[in-house]
Amino acid sequence: MSPSRPKLCDKKLKSAEIKLLKILHKIDNMKLSNSYISRLMLPECKKPFISETFNQNITFYYLGIAVLIIIFTYWWIYPSFASERCTLEIPSTALTLFRPPEDCSMCDSVSQVARLGNLTPEEFERRFAYSPTPVIVTDATRHWKAIKEFNFNFFADFYRNGKMGNKINECFFFAYKSGLRSLGEVLSMDAARANLSGAPWYVGWSTCYDEETRRLRQYYDRPYFLPRTAESDTIDWIFMGGPGQGAHMHVDSVRRVSWQAQVRGRKRWQLAPPPECLYTCRALTLTVHPGEILVVDTNRWYHMTHVLPGDLSITIGAEYD
Ligand SMILES: O=C(O)CCC(=O)C(=O)O
Ligand SMILES: [Fe+2]
Asked: Which of 11, 56, 178, 181 has the maximum number of C-beta atoms within 10 A of its C-beta?
């Protein structure tokens, strides 16, 4: 509140005081009684509409709310950064608040996802590598050992023999709706559940130790279509689980575009344009079959997955620059 109000009030009080003194002086001279004096009207100094104390309280109130919002936001969003592949998940209010709006030219001409093979790295680079147009490459995993060897027991053995101990629980782990709290818990689940006859589950994790990634990469090759200069990230992402399960709708905040090889099982992806492009762009649905690789910018396309009936689904992928 401005300082002029107290000043105005002081002035009024001062003049009232002077008037009062004059009146008292006259009363004294006129010898009037006390009861008469008590009926005299004094000039009133109206209190400001909002008192200064109230005003200070309101400032503290708003400051308090601002601090609470900051703490809440940090508490809410940070775990996503820490444990969810830097994923900004639904609720969409948080997304709308923190994600810069997209230019809808990223998706306005995308009406389906092409399935291509026999691509040269140059063609891939020109058409897809750094563009927001998703693509499925059908012929890039032909010689991968992973196609034959990856299954639940492969990963159980891989980590048991990797001498990593509890370190396997130190990287990104997404439990989705499985109720499993760590990769250690996943790999020690009972055989019935692992064979998909127990409670349904779907999980994802990242490698994070060089030795782990190096050993895993003995089972697959760098996809032949990646631009010759592109480097794969030093970590891999693995998603594994049974039919009916998958990842909820979300958008990521990772550094780069990724390729994702469907090693086993079939997975349906639903890609949705960012909300600001809903009237300009279409949502896309696609199924990735064993041996196919999906390349999609998961930072721009909202995405959710659903494992289709049949085999356990295993996907492995990495970001590239
Ligand atoms: O494969 C999945 O189920 C989810 C993958 C995902 O969200 C991602 O790669 O960003
Ligand atoms: Fe994602």
From this structure: 178
Ligand 1 closest atom vs CA 298 = 10
Query: What is the pLDDT confidence band of residue 38, given thresholds at 50, 70 and 90?
Result: very low
CA atoms within 13 A on the CB side of 131: 16
Pair 267, 308: CB distance under 8 Å? yes
The CATH code that applies to domain 96-320 is 2.60.120.650
Average pLDDT over residues 176-201: 97
Question: How many C-beta atoms lie closer than 10 Å to residue 315's C-beta?
Answer: 23
- How much is the pTM? 0.73
Task: Check residue 65 and give its pLDDT.
Answer: 63
Q: Could you tell me the two tokens for 227?
A: 């631009």
Phi, psi of 85 (to 5 degrees): 45, 45
Three-state DSSP class for residue 261: strand
Q: Point out the ligand nearest to the CA of residue 80.
A: 2
51 CA to middle of ligand 1, Å?
56
pLDDT band (50, 70, 90) for residue 89: very low
Both tokens of 172, joined, read: 């990104």
> Which atom number of ligand 1 is nearest to the Cα of residue 315?
1
> What are 226-238's pLDDT values in tens digits?
999 998 888 999 9
